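Aggregate trends can hide what the representation actually does to any particular protein. The sequence in question and its C-alpha cells are set out directly beneath this paragraph.
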Amino acid sequence: MLSYNDAVAGWTITIGRGWCSTMEITDEPVQLASMTLAGVGARTDNQCEAGPEGCIPELWQRFMEAGLSQLPGTQEPRYTYVLYTDYESDVNGAYTVLIGHEWEGEPPVVDKVGWTTAALPESRYIVFKASGGPVQQVVIEAWQYIWAWFESSPHVRTYSGDFERYDMAGFNPEQAVVEIYLAIQ
C-alpha cells in the first residue's frame, strides 16, 4: 500500500512481505553539510557481503566491543553511522564501509580496532526509513528495495557517500528502524 505521509513530507510504502514492513521515502531531497566519521572500516563489495565472507557483521562486532561511542571527540554518540564511500563504480563495484560516529578533531590511537576516518562530502540526499523486524533482515530488504527504486527513479546517485543512521537511544534489534541516506545529483 502506498500513501502520502505529511509527517515525513514523503511517501510511506507498506511492503507486507519479508521482515521490512514499512519504508518511508522523503519527497524532496535534503541537503546535508559535510562531516567526518570515525570508526572501524574495511573494503568490500555487495557480492562478498551477500555470502559467508562478508565483513560487515565482523565490523559491527569490533565496533561494539571497542566502545568507540565513549571516546572524546565523538559527536552525538546516540547516532551510529554505517558509511559506504570510495565506490569503485556503482552498486556492482567495491566500496569502503565504515561503522562509527560523527567525529571532531584528530582520532585517538585505539589498539587492535583498526580505527579509520572518512570524510562525507556535502550533498543532497534522498532518505529512506525502513522498519519492522530484525535489524539484519530489515537492512538487507531495504537495500534491495532501494536498488530497485533507483532503476526507475528520476534521481541519479552520485556514489560519493551513502550512509545508514541508527538512533541507538532505545534501539531494539528485533524491531529495527534505520534511516538510509543516498547521495544524489
User: Anything to note?
Assistant: The first helix runs from residue 46 to 49. Confidence is low (pLDDT under 50) at residues 1-6, 12-16. The chain has three helices and twelve strands.
